[in-house]
Amino acid sequence: MSRVRSAEKRSAILEAAVDEIAEAGLGAATAKIARRAGIATGTLFTYFATKEELLNELYLELKGEAYARMNAGFPQKGSLEERARHVWMSYLEWAIEAPRKRKVSVQLNVSDVITPETRVRAAAGRSFFDATFAELGELDAVRALPQGFAAALMGAIQEATMEFIAKNPKERERLKEEGFRVFWRALQ
Amino acid sequence: MSRVRSAEKRSAILEAAVDEIAEAGLGAATAKIARRAGIATGTLFTYFATKEELLNELYLELKGEAYARMNAGFPQKGSLEERARHVWMSYLEWAIEAPRKRKVSVQLNVSDVITPETRVRAAAGRSFFDATFAELGELDAVRALPQGFAAALMGAIQEATMEFIAKNPKERERLKEEGFRVFWRALQ
Amino acid sequence: MSRVRSAEKRSAILEAAVDEIAEAGLGAATAKIARRAGIATGTLFTYFATKEELLNELYLELKGEAYARMNAGFPQKGSLEERARHVWMSYLEWAIEAPRKRKVSVQLNVSDVITPETRVRAAAGRSFFDATFAELGELDAVRALPQGFAAALMGAIQEATMEFIAKNPKERERLKEEGFRVFWRALQ
Amino acid sequence: MSRVRSAEKRSAILEAAVDEIAEAGLGAATAKIARRAGIATGTLFTYFATKEELLNELYLELKGEAYARMNAGFPQKGSLEERARHVWMSYLEWAIEAPRKRKVSVQLNVSDVITPETRVRAAAGRSFFDATFAELGELDAVRALPQGFAAALMGAIQEATMEFIAKNPKERERLKEEGFRVFWRALQ
DNA sequence: GATGAATGAGGTTTCATTCAT
DNA sequence: TATGAATGAAACCTCATTCAT
What we know:
Chain A has eleven helices and no strands. By secondary structure, chain A is mostly helical.
């Protein structure tokens, strides 16, 4: 039997990619990523056929990780506000814990390497709380706006909130809460 | 006297940079930018010593252009809502008119090439309507949040709004207005 | 296992560098050196990280080669004159055989690319006959001069001798001998 | 009447070239030389048609300056040793006073930019004390060696001496004297 | 599968020289 | 003459990807 592609190595590459891209931008060299992952340059390409594929997979991974966090402990039966608050808080916690991951996720999102198909696949991870966003979209405040606006709005306000948490880490808890309240008020 | 450094050429380079970066990302080749600007490769470097400098100047230029738009026709004596609405609308109009510029502006903003000093210089262009944001920051909804949150919030919601305008260009006017109303409500 | 860095290729690069530099000076293009060595442009940089490193290694190589010649057949137990004569003759023979190498060695020596550290490392190769120079330094003629003067003196007179051998190759043997006698007399 | 090429500017260029080459090697940029000379890039080329010409003229200038020093106060009627000593001392003094000029002179000499014709023209400046070298060449010690050997020998030993003076500036006078004695003994 | 040397196109920047002013 | 912007070939070096081992 031949050796098998190891999941550990795959993860090591993705983690190394996060670090390297956080430091050097999307232009980060595959060779450096490989070295950081503790593997040979060539090995990287047995896990990801091209750099573009690596980047797309990374995007999926990061989105997936964030979504997993939001899905965990999701109060399926809570009130709309409770569910919205859960999503808000759990994403922010992930972003605070892994700022480089969030940074890279943003860079990937803004770039053109991520294919529409990848974006679609990434969105699939939201299944759990998508219903919540659908409900939010029904609120008077945004009913006249396209589907998805509520989600985008949350993302946007979180982005702004993150920025300030990064600057005042000690006020983290308060900022998380206040941020949510601003978001919530926007929807009333 | 020798030939004089022409403002037209400088502008041509910056415009070419916008187009090229919009298509190829921040990795866009200086040689291609030069060709698109109709000058020789070397000439670019008599206007901008390094690519990094070009990128920083471009950021300044784009921010400046957007701010100029917001400053133009600013209703100095209008109500707070009128002034906020002006800022909201004029930025969105600029972003809609020049989507590539906005896109590049976002990419630059997210990247690490823009120095803190450039960011400070860019912020200087906001003088006119900064007072408005200061006033917004005094509203109950965001009083507990750090200075600058209102501005960041507007940027964030605009970002979300832009995304949807890009997808539904025909609804532009309505989306602009609805977006503002969401923003405004968040502050009440 | 991957392909292994080949000593032959390394040598080929160094030899090509000698030829290219002899023809074009220290400004010789790395691309041309690579082509002459029969490898791709990029390959050169897997053997030498930068051109500067290549130049320093080349210096080491050339000095090493010359010193190896002088060490070979060194009459450890011969009289001072015999030992000095051996050093004198063997260096000149090397320089005559490989005039381009000597030329490049001189250019490198005069330039600022060779780091002090490289110079120190190069000097290490003289171990064998250093004792001889130390003894020469004790002779009355140069005792009042700094340590190392005798060695520098030999180098200088050899330089002058070389020049004339290059012009009158047929008189090589006589000039080698006469040159040594002038050197030797200077020390008496 | 049109403006005339100014001798001052020419000198300024040559001096700037010395400084720039001493710092950056023969690859020094003409534009930097021009800036250092306080003139425009283009102006340099009205004084020297090409960089190569500039370099050749510089060589001539430096050799000329050194020779002028040796010619000054030349003891036409002194003994052979007195005359030789004068040449020895005055060159060393020049080299000590203007180490960068000497350094550049050496670099030029070793390179291939200096044409044979320039070398011939440079040699012309030695007229005054050439007779002395001719006489030195008649001494038994070097009679069997080609014409010019005595001069080359002096140059070579001076080179060695210079090196040590550079390292021990305080012993300058003693080293100058001792160096000469070594040279003189070599000829006896 | 794993390795890392090899490849060569392409990236940024420099530079001697020209030429409009 | 003087100026310095303009030129574009070339320089050094990087990098995604391939492939011999």
